[in-house]
């Protein structure tokens, strides 16, 4: 016992401790006007401006209290414990800070012990502690008091843990009646559990209060309601936590002065549980405000990062490292990429001064897209070092951070990542929310994959090269918008534009000068009539004709059923793989999107008008394109092409004079002028760039604009990817 404390008879000490318990109970139940009490506490607060970094001290207190329990956590080894403590303690000026605060901590410790023995009212004891700490901030008051409590509480349990094997500890333990207390540990277990529960919530409140103090002032101020509300409640939180410290100290003092009889003869468990309940309510309120504060900070940081990204792409750089770090991962502490070839983690340096193609998508990227992309990528690698050394692809997975990362999402991500031969981001969590916002707002990402091209200096040279990659493959290198415009200038309306890179059989037919019908739709009866009449006309006109069924851009299940019938009835040649059909329509759509991206959708370009017709016919039923070798003869809707074939007898006499091509074209044009099929284009909201206006490819008038709600059931994507 410290010198200067009054000598007391055990019975007198027992009565004093009982008086403390009773006064504590009465204080909590009768002091209904918390405002009066807190006004008294706030009146003691006169900080002198000193800044105390209490976080290291709190770590030390936490370490002491975590070990000073009836049941030590056996999963934490001694070496681990020392390593943790050493790591926390080795902070700048930590030792000098402890030297400066030791006197204050000892004073508080003695004050608590003295008041516990003298039976002082719990509120009075708490108030005296506040008077001792008047010049400190609220978080410092709390942590210093907890340190004082940890000093006595830790000593109590240190002796309890080692007295059986250490003679010095044994002698000291006898003075503190520890052998007697441990002998009755069974009956005391509920008491220690109640103390431990209260200590746990005390530490939770302390951590929460310190967190508020450590919030970055550059991103949040007292003008934020959540922070100002929390600041107003922190004095109350500190008061009741220190009040709980006094209550816990009273229990330990009672045990060491009166032994186990102190506990079994009182009902103080109710007091501890009541304090724990009150602190839990305070903690819950503070945590709600803290969550709101962090959301505000994240939003401010996100805005700052977003603006930084915008500025970064307007600047000139010597290489692409600043840009790539800002987009993928800014620090150097981890390797943020996976090499698709070796499957090993690598740093961003592997992309330095290279053309980088950022493949941006969600986890719903289709297997068709991956399959064709991989094919184009591998083909480009076979061209030699010219392309191989100059560009790299990096997959940027975009995942909603507000959605909890689940096992199905993890499995889907790992499945996609393992299949990609190019670089991929190690984990979607590396991509910050501000970067996702930038990708969506500036690069117009709307869930459909895009391929943003950065030159060796990190400048965006194409906002989405996926369209030109689908159309021209690796021939589009270096995938710039200038290259895209150049490739369009070289193109003409010919059959190769529609089927290039899909099926070499058709390319051979073109070389042989055959007539070729590409046709599509999902009406099997129309398919039967069309193929029958086309074959009959070819025989009558004595022209070599081949027919290829290319399906539709949607309704895969229905298209598969049509394909099965075509095979069974031997109606025509067709592509056996649905991926080839998907690629055919994706290339056609990419031609439209490419023109939209270049701002040349409604140019007076005959080739583009024909592509738009074909896409429109697909939305409105069947269609057919007839070519003579490479030259396209007719591009028509089902309602005009089939009648033109059926009415062969009406125009066959013109074949000798005009030739088959012109005769068929002219008769089809007459039917077209009579029927005037509607033109329609559907742009999913997931499409990044949707034109504000569009001219009809048939009549060149401005088309009407509608909003459509559509539900297709032929392709199922796991719901978990969109929750």
From TrEMBL:
Please give the Pfam families that the UniProt record associates with this protein.
SEO_C, SEO_N
Question: Which superkingdom does the taxonomy of this entry point to?
Answer: Eukaryota
Query: What is the protein's name according to its record?
Result: PROTEIN SIEVE ELEMENT OCCLUSION B
Sieve element occlusion N-terminal domain: residues covered: 32-317
Q: InterPro entries in the record, alphabetically?
A: SEO_C (IPR027944), SEO_N (IPR027942), SEOA (IPR039299)
Report the PANTHER family cross-referenced here: PROTEIN SIEVE ELEMENT OCCLUSION B, PROTEIN SIEVE ELEMENT OCCLUSION B-LIKE
Q: Where is the Sieve element occlusion C-terminal domain?
A: 483-713
Q: What is the lineage of its organism?
A: Eukaryota, Viridiplantae, Streptophyta, Embryophyta, Tracheophyta
| One Gene Ontology term from the biological process aspect of the record | phloem development
